[in-house]
Amino acid sequence: MTREIFVSLVQKNSDEIETLISEANTRLKAQNIGIIIDCKGSFLRLRGLFPKKPGSPDTGLTSQRISLKIRATASGVKAAEKQALKIRLSLDAGDFDWSSYSSKNSIITRNYANQTPRTISEWVSLFEVDYFQRRRTDQQTLTTWRTEYGMVFKRLPSEATLTSELLLQTILATPPDTKTRKRFCICLGAIAKFAGIPLDTGQLKGNYNPKRVAPRQIPDDQVIVEWYYKIPSAPWRWVYGMIATYGLRNHEVFRLDLEAFEGSHICTVLEGKTGNRRVWPFHLEWVEEFQLHFPQLPAVNLERSNASLGGDVSQMFRRVGINFPAYNLRHAWAIRTLEYGLQVSLAAQQMGHSQQVHSELYHHWITEKQHQRAFEQLLKRSDRPRPPVVNPDNPL
User: Which of 73, 199, 357, 396 could be stapled to 192 by a disulfide with Cβ–Cβ 3.0 to 4.6 Å?
Assistant: First the structure.
């Protein structure tokens, strides 16, 4: 290969990488991430406003760079973009830690092709890379990593050796037959499988079932309407009304197709915990009473994670003094569909979960009032079974 051809190929590759970086930065800007990718030599970096480094005299957020030790390749640009999204999520959550990006902890600085990870922190870092290579990277997967896997892995001693005995001890330290025990079994079982460590968590998960959770205080329809009129902010009243009428998750009220909703009583959820779906109102009258066809979204940053947006709704409930959690409006919607007689399979689809989950979560919350109402409706049926009529003076 002549020098001219070599220089031409290098320049062509450099131009392609610059294009990929520019495209990635455009996507990051569109999502209001506040972090961009740049290149120094053969490696990529991230630039944005970050908290001061340990020992720095600076205060507050300052413009800084994070060296990723990721080479400037096509796959490297993808990895850098994922890191930018991950860092944005940690900044929003307030748990950004510079130590995760020091040369000591950078998984890219280690040659794992020739060296087996030794410590738990090394295995967790490698597991994280593999996790996001097999999944799309968005706010939902980033939140799942932070709130599920990340929280469990923080309970492990980072510099210790990853062994089945240590994982077993960590699992057994959680209360049996609880959601926590089940989560630890799933997450620690996953990293054990990834590292090739034998660990059978089947018998450790216990008998946790959401139906065993203490029933929540579900507000009745009268209480729901009364609280609607007590909310002083019109935009937050609209949010409250949408959740009550359509049984939405807290964050989903910010992920709706408002254009399609105009002039229709069917609400379309564009994205959320379980993706796109359509929901019908129970009660239909609330669409008009709560003025739902006149959307007024609160002034919140819609580019934040679903968890952050859902937290805004919960905070509003606390601020107003509503004496039940926002999620109980969703539970009330589910019970209301049972009173209407909607098939369980249809209600489950509209709520965005399986029929099994729907039955486990809601059937045990049906109160005596719901049973009595169902009984009265059955009695009104003209074709209901009738008892035999016998003349006591002339028995058969």
Answer: 199
Q: Which amino acid is at 299?
A: A
Per-residue model confidence as pLDDT tens digits over 25-36: 999 988 889 999
Q: Residue 183 is encoded by which pair of tokens?
A: 């989560």
Helices (H), 134-209: 139-144, 151-153, 164-172, 179-195
Is residue 187 within 8 A of residue 195, CB to CB? The reply is: no
Nearest one of 49, 82, 80 to 67, comparing CA atoms? 80
Quick one: 307 and 237 in the same domain? Answer: yes
Do 150 and 233 lie in a common domain? no
Q: Using one digit for the tens of pLDDT, what is the confidence trace for 104-125? A: 444 444 434 445 677 888 888 8
- Give the Cβ contact number of residue 103 at 10 Å: 9
Determine, yes or no, domain membership for 214: no
**Residue whose structure tokens are 């205060």:** 59
Last residue of a domain, one of 185, 208, 231: 208
- Do 344 and 251 fall into the same domain? yes
Strand partners for 272: none
pTM (2 d.p.):
0.55
Domain that holds residue 153: 113-208
Q: Which has more confidence, 155 or 274?
A: 155
